[in-house]
Write a structure and sequence with these properties.
Layout (H helix, E strand, L loop, with lengths): L2 H4 L4 H34 L2 H15 L8 H14 L3 H29 L5 H5 L9 H18 L1 H8 L3 H24 L5 H24 L15 H35 L5 H34 L3 H37 L7 H27 L3 H54 L9
Helix pairs in contact: 2-9, 2-12, 3-11, 4-5, 4-8, 4-11, 4-12, 5-7, 5-11, 7-10, 8-9, 9-10, 11-15, 12-13, 12-14, 13-14, 14-15
């Protein structure tokens, strides 16, 4: 096997191939860990408690967007600085991002902890206080630990800006592996509390990032180590200018997805969240495989766009379209083998119907299609159209999700999600074509 030929090409393309290969190995292990976590979690918790945890976890995902887009802003700005070989500018971007995350997240954690003292958390989550008496403590502990973790997740964004997403993936899977180990120990001890499981899930990634900080900045990338001396107001304006757009897009997209778990829990009951999430986790294999290939494309596109290399970007677009065709075959195969997979994975603990499988498969594929275009647009930084569309859909489709779930269950809810994602995919495709042809105007070129 000629490795030079496989990983050859220009520097940008060769780096993408190496990251894809590394990410395939890392994500392969991540996939195994994620699926082992589910039966272990069901062993540690009742189905009712597990449904509650899945709802809480979907809320915690929203914390990923509370950096006001600084993480993705860093990803783009650092890639630009490295394309220009400006190490001082790169360090200013990293330092400014880190200290702003500290200044944003710490007050938010305190504010959340205080405000929860005046909220009936059991009523908010539609949870019986007899079954889960410490709901407030679980929410406060989970959010506090997750918020602290997010401060240090900028390390992963830094590696993505350096066109090394495989390193970011490694940090994520190490956190998941530690969580798996803790859950395994808890399962040996018998039934655990929801609080114990919540802390195990949230504290494990924080431990990994705390170790990764000195490892990252005391060696090869010491020239990027955060320092107050390099905190820069001009860099802050640059990061916020792009970052706020990313923030709004993230929040809007997460609201559409996160609200589904809360709506199912509220309209139906927490136990119904479990089959919904089981199906989502299974079909997310497709999205994970897509992300392995597409993630390196983001920062590589930033590098290409900064250097005016539209020939490379158009070539990447053509390859992405071929990938979408391959995904059709993959998702159809996943629908066929789903019952067997669930049986081997979780036995008869949770039943997932055929209609839920089909609807979740369509939704996941539409996410892949939409993101195949948005990854390139985000790398270029032309995201005004994505911003307008996602905000509009959040306002329109969250109420639609509620009523669709109320009258048609999870099938109705997923139908509304599929429709909103299809609209995004269509508009993203149109904008990318306009940009590649050089005739994008107005909002299409911003």
């Amino acid at each position: 096997m000629n490795l030079k030929k496989i990983f050859g090409g220009d520097h940008r393309t060769a780096l993408i191939k190496k990251n894809i290969a590394g990410s395939l190995l890392i994500k392969g292990w991540s996939c195994i860990v994620q699926f082992l976590i589910v039966p272990l979690s069901l062993q540690c918790l009742t189905k009712y408690e597990y449904g509650i945890w899945l709802t809480i976890n979907s809320i915690l995902m929203g914390i990923d967007a509370i950096d006001v887009g600084l993480g993705n802003g860093l990803r783009n700005r650092l890639a630009e600085a490295m394309a220009l070989d400006n190490h001082e500018m790169a360090r200013r971007q990293v330092s400014t991002t880190f200290f702003m995350l500290v200044m944003i997240m710490l007050p938010l954690i305190v504010l959340f902890a205080v405000s929860m003292q005046f909220v009936d958390c059991n009523a908010l989550m539609n949870v019986s206080p007899e079954l889960v008496p410490d709901m407030r403590g679980i929410l406060v502990a989970s959010v506090a630990i997750m918020g602290s973790t997010f401060i240090f997740k900028f390390i992963g964004n830094m590696y993505m800006g350096l066109q090394l997403p495989a390193i970011n993936n490694l940090l994520v899977v190490l956190g998941q592996t530690v969580s798996l180990g803790v859950l395994f120990v808890l399962s040996l001890l018998g039934h655990s509390s929801l609080m114990t499981v919540a802390v195990a899930f949230t504290a494990s990634p924080l431990l990994v990032y705390l170790i990764a900080y000195p490892v990252s900045f005391c060696g090869k990338y010491s020239f990027l180590a955060p320092s107050l001396r390099f905190f820069d107001k001009e860099s802050l304006r640059s990061l916020f200018g792009l970052g706020v757009k990313f923030f709004v897009i993230q929040v809007s997209g997460l609201m559409l997805f996160m609200s589904s778990n809360v709506i199912i829990s509220h309209v139906m009951n927490p136990a119904e969240v479990t089959p919904y999430q089981i199906a989502y986790r299974y079909f997310s294999i497709l999205y994970m495989l897509f992300a392995i290939i597409a993630s390196p494309l983001w920062s590589a596109t930033t590098d290409a766009y900064t250097k005016g290399d539209w020939v490379w970007i158009r070539r990447a677009m053509r390859k992405m379209n071929l990938l979408l065709l391959a995904c059709v075959a993959v998702v159809m195969f996943m629908i066929v083998v789903a019952p067997l997979f669930y049986h081997l994975w979780i036995g008869d603990k949770v039943e997932v119907g055929l209609s839920l499988n089909i609807m979740m498969a369509i939704y996941t594929y539409m996410l892949v299609v939409s993101n195949s275009y948005s990854y390139i647009l985000m790398g270029i930084g032309k995201i005004r159209m994505i911003l307008v569309v996602t905000v509009s859909e959040m306002i329109i489709f969250v109420p639609i999700e509620y009523f669709a779930c109320k009258y048609a269950g999870t099938t109705g809810l997923l139908t509304s999600l599929i429709l909103s994602t299809a609209i995004c995919a269509l508009l993203n495709n149109m904008q990318l074509k306009f940009l590649s042809l050089g005739n994008a105007k107005g909002i299409w070129n911003r």
